[in-house]
Write a structure and sequence with these properties.
The structure is a single chain. The protein has a single domain, classed as Four Helix Bundle (Hemerythrin (Met), subunit A). 69% of the residues lie in helices and 0% in strands. The protein contains five helices and no strands.
C-alpha cells in the first residue's frame, strides 16, 4: 500500500511537469548545454578553450540523454495510465522499476559529463565548481525534472 501511495504521489507530481520544450516538445539542439556553459563561464571565469570543451561535453551528454528522457516520459505516462485503470501491483512495480533504471542511467550520464568538465578546470575553479548533479549543491530534487 505504501509503495502504491508513493507511486501515485510521484505520478501526480510528474503530470505537473511538462517536458523541457513544453508538453510533448523537445528542447532545441544544444540550448541547455549552451545556457549551462554560459552560466559556468560567468561563475568560474572559463577560458575560451574551457568553454569550447564544456560545450562539447554537455552537448554530447544532452544528445545521449534525450532518448532516455523520452523513454522516461513514456514510462511515467504508462505508470499514470496503469494507476488509472487499476493495474496489478506487479505491473505497477515493473513500471516503477523501469522509471528507476532510466533515472539512474540519466544520473550516470550527467555525473560523467560533470566529471569530464571538472577535469578541464584549474584548481581554483575546481574549488568554486558546484558539487552535485547538474551543478546543484546537495542531492538532486525529487522527483527529477523532465
Amino acid at each position: 500500500m505504501r509503495t502504491l501511495f508513493l507511486s501515485f504521489a510521484l505520478l501526480l507530481n510528474a503530470q505537473q511537469r511538462p517536458g523541457f520544450g513544453g508538453p510533448g516538445g523537445h528542447r532545441p539542439e544544444g540550448s541547455f548545454a549552451e545556457h549551462r556553459v554560459q552560466d559556468l563561464s560567468r561563475r568560474l571565469d572559463l577560458t575560451e578553450s574551457q568553454r569550447t570543451q564544456a560545450l562539447a561535453i554537455f552537448t554530447a551528454a544532452d544528445r545521449e540523454s534525450e532518448p532516455l528522457e523520452d523513454r522516461l516520459e513514456q514510462a511515467h505516462r504508462a505508470l499514470r495510465d496503469a494507476t488509472r485503470r487499476n493495474a496489478s501491483g506487479s505491473e505497477i512495480d515493473q513500471l516503477a522499476q523501469t522509471i528507476g533504471t532510466l533515472t539512474g542511467q540519466l544520473a550516470a550520464i550527467n555525473a560523467k559529463a560533470d566529471t569530464a568538465f571538472h577535469n578541464t578546470l584549474t584548481n581554483k575553479q575546481r574549488e568554486q565548481f558546484p558539487r552535485g548533479p547538474r551543478g546543484r549543491k546537495g542531492p538532486p530534487p525529487f522527483p527529477p525534472k523532465f
